């Protein structure tokens, strides 16, 4: 593998840096990301002075409590939520929903090791070109997710009119 290909491969594993105050953003569309975003949007819908239990979020979002516990441990470590102990305890957002981006959520729930190495081809020059394609796509998606806040999701700002939707 030449030096350029090696650098591109290392860059692909590191993915996008700098959009989130937490770990680098990981471009990985999965149920983990979708559940984490849904849970934080749900939490943002609740009165800010009243903590929300995982059981309540799990019921509303149809997610298991044990899975939410795993996600919330990462979200708390990422500084996006705070836990409130005692009777009437639960979770609240650590910052305003206007200050939490979807990129922040991705950065909190994914670790660098979660991103698989690119193996599109065994032809070194083509691998470099493919890595460049995926990195460019990841930068664009990261830029978009870094610009969208939990508040934007709540407001419906991102809703796409039916006639503008892509075919299924």
What is the strand tally?
A: 2
Low-pLDDT runs of 5+ residues are 1-26
Tally of helical segments: 7
CATH class: Mainly Alpha
* Main sheet properties: 2 strands, antiparallel
Strand order of the largest sheet: 1-2
Q: Quote the distance from N terminus to C terminus.
A: 39 Å
Number of domains: 1
CATH topology, by name, is: Arc Repressor Mutant, subunit A
Helices and strands, in order, run as: HHHHEEHHH
Please state roughly what percent of the residues sit in beta strands, choosing from under 5%, 5-15%, 15-25%, 25-35%, 35-45% or over 45%. Answer: under 5%
Radius of gyration over C-alpha positions, nearest whole angstrom: 18 Å
Relevant CATH superfamily: Winged helix-like DNA-binding domain superfamily/Winged helix DNA-binding domain
Percent helix, as a range, is 40-55%
Question: What is the general shape?
Answer: globular
The CATH architecture term is Orthogonal Bundle
**Structure class:** mainly alpha
- Name the average pLDDT: 78
